[in-house]
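Running this now, will post back.
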Amino acid sequence: MLMLRRRTLLLGSLFASLAPVLSRAATPITKLILLGTQGGPNFNLTRGETASLLVINDQPYLIDCGYGTLRALLQSGVNYLNVGHVFLTHLHDDHNADLPALLGHQWTQGRIKPTKIFGPYGTDQLVKSANLYNQANTDIRMVDEARSIKPGDLFAGTVVKAGPGIVAVFSNDDVKITAIENTHFPAESKARIPHRSLAYRFDTKDRSIVFSGDTAYCENLVKLAHGADILVNEAIEKEVYRAIYDKRVANGAYADNPEGVWKHIIGTHSATTDAGRMAAEAGVKTLVLNHIIPGDIDDSIFIASARKSFSGEIIVGKDQMVL
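Update: finished.
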């Protein structure tokens, strides 16, 4: 009996010592945090504008930076000073409005490592403009606080020249990031402006996650997302949203050309049924609906629409959801 008791105690001690190791092994290397899930340009008291965060081996990578991102980072428990890589899908303000705030506060609070911002045409000028926006703050603190590093030495934008083919954006030991052009901007618009819109794929050691950006149905996106674990795709219930949109117009929104704005909304965004269709065609495991329009209807409506063509897991995104 004494010998048996000793063996039991030894086994118990062995399993107790292994428990932390087993726990760490079960913890995913890659964590997805939805910071802002409201389709825009729009925000409210429950949803911020578009922003998502991938934490890979404890390193944060920010995808889009709409209004409310800085506060959402604080709420998530991720230190915004540690965000060293930002990836913008396109340069609409609901995807980059908080970038000047993020960079300005990083500099003011003493970040001394570069923050690299990647995005389509115009991203380099956007970052230069953010630094210029913060110029008065910089000038004052350079004198009053004897700062030695200027924002221009830390913050720079890199233009990603993506087209119908998949291009490499960034890689290190933890992640490989690729991109492709999506269909948020129609051909007639692209003939008049150089601006483009991107989708990104992040391949890590344990997961592959794709961010659609704003886009209509897109064969390029299907190609980029092929076999991914998660597709984070925008979703709009167009018929439901029309009545809400008309009320906003009646209250003074989009006064310069409400029908022109509506044409853009219905023509360049993913209906929830299209999000489901692209997820199915790409063969992804999980579809996460993001950039939600409208943001205040029952989740079951979005799920039912996506389910028409996608049989995998469907999640309707919420701010601060961790996946």
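The CA atoms of residues 171 and 177 lie 6 Å apart. More later if anyone needs it.
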